[in-house]
Structures are given as structure tokens and as C-alpha cells.
Amino acid sequence: MYRSNPTSRKSFSARPAWLFFLSAALVFVGVTSSGCQKVSDMKQAAEDASRALEDAQSAANSEEAGERMGQAFQKLRETAGGGTVVQAIDFRKLKPVLPGTLDGMQTGDVTGSRSSQMGMSTSKAEAVYRADGERRERITVTVTDMGSMSGLTSLSSRVSAWTESETESTTGYDRGTTIAGYDGRETFRSYETGGSTGRLQFLVADRFQVEVDGRNVPMDRLKAAGEAVDIDALTAMKDEGVGVDDGKQQEVADMYAEFREAEERKQAAPGDTSPEPIAPVEAAELKALLPTTLAGLDRAEIRSQKQPMAENRSLLRAAATYTGGDKRLSVEVIDYAQILTPGGVLPGAAWMMYDVEKESESGYERTTEIQGYPAKETMRTRDTSIRSDVQMVVEGRFYLKVEGRNLTMEEVKAAIADVGPARIADLARRGA
Questions:
Q1: How do 293-294 and 297-308 pair as beta strands?
Q2: CA geometry: angle 276, 11, 374, nearest 5 deg
Q3: Fewest beta carbons less than 10 Å away: which of 78, 95, 204, 385?
């Protein structure tokens, strides 16, 4: 997740990544927008957003700059959404539209996910169907709510040769088609081994992308799988989340105002404003965070390491392993103080840039907060075993990773509480 809260992000002292994302998206819309009336309307919206972005960059003060950046962001989202902001619906509503069975094939894992960056959201549900036998047939059906990008998806299907172009060879073809009354694309390829791959794609209600991928399955069965998707249910959901205000416009405005203020302070400061490297904490201080018992398990090993990096900088890590019966817990704390980049994200924590939620029959993955700090938790079950993992970033500097085997997520979180994010934050404050 991406927040300006100092507990999750350091102050901006360089052009932030989301500003590049905003500019790049405007360029994409501007390049693709030409032709029909709908395309022309989106081009106009993109031009409006681009002007708002320029206004933000030339604003007289941080507050005004933030307000105009928020307006530019809102126009971008409206452009990408085809004229209005669109929030992707909960993937749990998409799962029921997938076929329950396909031509006697066994239904495997059904998964769902939702991803959002700065309010630009999509969600999807996916099911895999398999058939036993020598050919090992498999069909994967995916339904994606393009959400915030639904306008661009619809636009792409119009300005590209979605149905007109066709290629063919002795091993396969790629051509336009129609499924359940919707324009689409079908691709098929056969191989000397006797196997084949095929793909079918079509867009429902200018919002939901249906994709059917097959291995060793003929195209007529892939089309039957596409037609087995509950199209009526998708059509009934086409207006959900349209025009929903999630407050992201104000969040972007606040973040850009913070960015501008940091830039102004840098320009006003005399001489070299490069920050002095922060000294890592002592190894003993990190190791002291790891008690002799955790989650009811005894500590089997504890270690620390100072890892040299470029320019006489280093990172410090401490780790411990706890065991008991078939249960195992690994805890690692890393101090990245000396290798932080201005406004950057810690190595291994790119998930901080997104809001993510994924779910399947075997577990889940999602971004969240623990004790006010950004975190990602993952839980997986396999047969009788459980894997529960948590990653956290504390004060934008310390990376905490806890991996549990045959421990529930509640037990792992209890272990995190015993390690103490507040104790880690105190180390950052005392070393600042």
C-alpha cells in the first residue's frame, strides 16, 4: 500500500514513482486516442488531465500544487475509466460466473485477486479444469474486471484490428471471432509432438475481459468454455463501482504537496543538502529483539551479519530460528539505514506500492497494516501443513520478516507482537 504517512514512507526528496506513472498514463491515452467519437472524447479528457498536471508543476505554492495534482489524477482516472472513476468489484463476486464444470473435466483451484495502485484498480477470478489421460488436457478460464482501466481496454479493442486482422500458417492461426455476441480474438497452435495450445479472448460490457487458455484442447471446446461463463451475471454488474469516490484524489494532493515542500526546502538550503549516512544500529541491539522463546517455541539458533555494500555503506541483519515438534518459526530483522534511496522502497518490499488481495482454496495473500505499519501477510495450506508468513516495514527503514511452518497466522502475529514493532521503531528514533 502506498501512503504518505511517515510510518510507511520516508519523505519525498526525489520525483516520486507515482508521478512518472501519472505522466506515462497520460502519454499512453494521448497516443492511442484518435478516431471515433468515443476515442475523441477520451483524447480530450487526456488533454485536460495533461494540462492539470502542467498546472500542478507550475503552481505558486505547495497547497495549490497539491490541489491541482489531485485534479490531474482525478481526470486521469476518469479518462482511463471511460469518462468516470470506476472501482473494480470484489473478486468474490466474480468467482460464481466461472463455469462449475467443463465437459467432464475436474475443477482445480479457483483463485481470486484484487490489485490497486493509487486508486487504479482491477480484480479477477480464475479457475483451472483438468482431464486425466495421456493428453493431460487443461483449460484455464479467467474473468477480469478491468475497473479503472475499462475505458482503455474498450478503446484498445476499437483502435486495434481486434476483429479484422488474420494470420494463418501450417501450424496455426490468429484471427477475430465472436463469442456469445461479443467481438473477440482466437489463437491456436499445434506442435509436432501432437500437442496444442489455444487462447480465446473477448470483452463483455466494455468492462469484463474473459480469457480462455487451453492445452491439448480443440478450439471448439475452448469456445464452449467461454460460452459457459455466466455472461448475464457479468452484464448485470457492469455499473457496480462506477462513480465511487474512494478519497484517493485527496491522498494524491497531500502527497504531491509534501513532495513540493521537500523540493522547496532543498532549494532553499545552502550548499550540499545530501543527507549524511545514518549509522546502522549495533548487532547486539537487533539480536536483543529476538527472545529465547517465541510462539511457544524454543530458540534453536540466533545470528547476525554486517553485509558491506557500495561506497563504504553496509546493512545489518539479525535472524533467529525457533523449533518445537513439527513447528518452525524464522524471524529476520534488517536495518537498511545506510542504503536507503530518497523516497525509495526497501528491497523486497515492492508490495508497499500496491493494495493487493489474493485468495484461493489453499490460502491467501494481502497487504495490510500491523500496529500501524505496512505489512503483507501470506497463508498457504498443503495437505496437513500450514505456511504463514508476514513481511513488515517499520519507520521506512527496518524490514521484518517472520515465516511460520505449521503455525496459524494468529500465532505468527502474536510472535510479531512479542518481537515488538514499537521496540524496532524506538531503535530508529534513538539512532536518528
A1: antiparallel
A2: 115
A3: 385
User: Are 355 and 117 a contacting pair, CB within 8 Å?
Assistant: yes
Instruction: Tell whether the model's pLDDT for residue 35 goes beyond 80.
Output: no
pLDDT in tens, 356-405: 899 998 999 999 999 999 999 999 998 889 999 999 999 888 999 999 99
**How much is the pLDDT for 281?**
85
Q: Which residue has the cell 494540462?
A: 51
Tell me if 184 sits within 8 A of 200, measured CB to CB.
yes
**Could you give the C-alpha distances from 214 to 17, 203, 305, 341, 355, in angstroms and in order?**
37, 18, 48, 44, 30
CB-based burial label for 133 (10 Å; 0-12, 13-18, 19+) = exposed
The mean predicted confidence, pLDDT, of the chain is 81
Residues β-bridged to residue 10: none
The Cα-based distances of 166 to 173, 174, 190, 313, 408 in angstroms read 7, 6, 17, 56, 53
DSSP single-letter state for residue 279: P
**pLDDT(21) > 80:** no
Contact predicate 280/337, CB 8 Å: yes
Backbone angles phi, psi at 412, to 5 degrees: -65, -45
Q: Residue 256 is placed in which grid cell? A: 504531491
Nearest-angstrom CA–CA distance, 336 and 396: 9
Rounded Cα distance, 346 and 331, in Å = 17
All domains of the chain in start order, with CATH: 17-84+245-267 (no CATH), 91-236 (3.40.1000.70), 283-431 (3.40.1000)
pLDDT for position 6: 36
Residue 287: burial class (beta carbons within 10 Å; 0-12, 13-18, 19+): middle
Neighbouring-strand partners of residue 127: 110, 141
pLDDT band for 118, please (50, 70, 90 cuts).
low
